[in-house]
Every structure is written in C-alpha cells, then in structure tokens.
Specification:
Helix content: 55-70%
Distance between the termini: 40 Å
Strand content: 5-15%
Number of strands: 4
Strand order of the largest sheet: 1-4
Length: 156
C-alpha cells in the first residue's frame, strides 16, 4: 500500500509535463521516480504508529513485515533514492543555480538560521525545517533556533 500511494502521486510530474507540453520527454521521469520513493518512504515511517494493529489485522505494511528498525532502514534507502533521482534530474536537465541554491539554502537555514532576522517573516514559529520537496526534516541547531526566534511571525 505504501508503494500504491507513492505510485499514485508519482504520476503528477509526468502528467503535468504531458499536459503542458503535449509531448513525451524523459525530463519528468526522474521527478516521478523521486516522488514514488519519497512518498513511499514517508508512508512507511507513518505506518510505524500502526504496526501492532497491522500485525493483528494481518495487513502487509512494511513495518509489520520487516519490523520497525528494518522498516526505518528501508525508508532511508527510499529517501536516498529520492535524493539520487533529484540530483540525476538536476544534472540531466542542466538546471541552473536556482535549482541547486534552493536545496542548499534550506539546509543552511536549519544549520545557521537566517542572517537577517529583521528582514524576514515566518508564518509560524520554526523548530525544524521541513524539506517536503527534498524529502527530509532537518532539525535546527540550537544557534539556528535562537537566530530564527528573532524573526517576526507573519500575519496577514
């Protein structure tokens, strides 16, 4: 079921590309593979909270099948593959500085905070940077948390 969910969502990048360009190209395929691995990996983590129920009901979730520790390792492999597919597409498509800077800047925010807290705003207090498009949650360092706490909360 983890992979069925991933497969369903993985059709979006390729479907969107076909809808916009009306032609097939290899460019969206690694993005679709990245979404497949990313969603499946996170659904495995999400299923950890139901592992006992899954076993009792004889459901075939990865955590019930492999055990919790092995399921987390399997999820990590899927997330590594997600990163590999995103790098592959970035190199294949010769994406420019904005593609690579976007990924790097989110990682830097989690590690260092913002250099100009008076010039930016967050919608909610931040304790970790959720990289939904990059497949991981990076815990903020203590110095980054202190720095980010100086950022005003954005309200419309």
């Amino acid at each position: 079921s983890h992979f069925i969910l991933g497969l369903g969502l993985s059709l979006a990048p390729t479907g969107a590309y076909l809808a916009v360009t009306v032609q097939f190209h290899l460019l969206p395929i690694p993005f679709s593979l990245a979404v497949l691995a990313w969603v499946s990996g996170f659904d495995i983590i999400y299923a950890l909270q139901d592992v006992e129920f899954d076993r009792q009901q004889k459901l075939f979730s990865v955590p019930a099948w492999l055990g919790e520790k092995s399921a987390l390792r399997f999820s990590s492999v899927l997330h590594f593959l997600t990163t590999a597919f995103l790098v592959w597409d970035g190199v294949y498509a010769r994406f420019g500085i904005w593609y690579w800077a976007g990924a790097a800047s989110l990682s830097q925010l989690a590690n260092e905070g913002t250099k100009t807290p008076n010039e930016c705003k967050f919608a909610v207090p931040v304790s970790e940077v959720d990289l939904k498009e990059i497949i991981e949650v990076i815990p903020c360092t203590e110095s980054a948390k202190k720095n980010i706490e100086g950022v005003a909360e954005w309200k419309e």
